[in-house]
Amino acid sequence: MADPGVTGRRQRHEQWMRRALEVAVTGPDTHPADDAAVEDVPVGAVLYGPDGTELAIGRNERELTGDPTAHAEVLALRRAAERSGRWRLDGCTLVVTLEPCTMCAGAIALARVSTVVFGAWEPKTGAVGSLWDVLRDRRLTHRPEVYAGVLEAESAALLRAFFR
């Protein structure tokens, strides 16, 4: 018999990943998808508070803003910190459609995010198990829980369609 806690967590992660996939396609409400946003790789991130409320969202905006650090995860972290008035995001869960890179993994660790849920693996630049495993490096003082491959097929399909 399946553990109800695990089943409930899996369902919550899948629900939250569906929201991140929606963000990857449509972008944040504050920046409607325009031509430049459409050119960005469709990665979506949603940061949830300890009580499960949505705190902030981010979609890649490098092309839109000309900012090389405008990855979905970084934008969601910045927006959540601004909204909450604190840089420590302990107790929060970051859900992202693609495995974070080294920059994003570093920002996640420094923000003290408690849990990371991601969809598709990124074998070329992934830093949460593929190429590197920054978030589970024992030398760090903060290591979030990581749940990988949540709605992986849907996340990967979105990226494949973009790169066609």
Structure description:
The chain is of the alpha/beta class. The protein contains six helices and five strands; from the N terminus they run H-H-E-E-H-H-E-H-E-E-H. The chain has helices at 4-26, 35-39, 62-65, 72-84, 102-110, 152-163; strands at residues 44-48, 54-59, 93-98, 115-120, 145-147. It has a five-stranded mixed beta sheet. The longest helix is centred in the N-terminal third of the chain and has 23 residues, at 4-26. The relative contact order is 0.15.
Keywords:
alpha/beta; five-stranded mixed sheet; globular; 164 residues; 6 helices; single chain; 16% strand
How are the secondary structure elements laid out?
Blueprint: H1 4-26, H2 35-39, E1 44-48, E2 54-59, H3 62-65, H4 72-84, E3 93-98, H5 102-110, E4 115-120, E5 145-147, H6 152-163
Parallel strand pairs: 3-4, 4-5
Antiparallel strand pairs: 1-2, 1-3
Give a concise summary:
The chain is of the alpha/beta class.
Low-confidence stretches: none
> What proportion of the residues form beta strands (DSSP E)?
15-25%
Number of strands: 5
The shape is globular
Order of helices and strands: HHEEHHEHEEH
- Strand neighbour order, sheet with most strands: 2-1-3-4-5
Report the radius of gyration as a whole number of Å: 15 Å
The total of helices stands at 6
- Roughly how many Å apart are the termini? 42 Å
Mean pLDDT: 92
The secondary-structure class comes to alpha/beta
User: What can be said about the biggest beta sheet?
Assistant: 5 strands, mixed
Q: Percent helix among the residues?
A: 40-55%
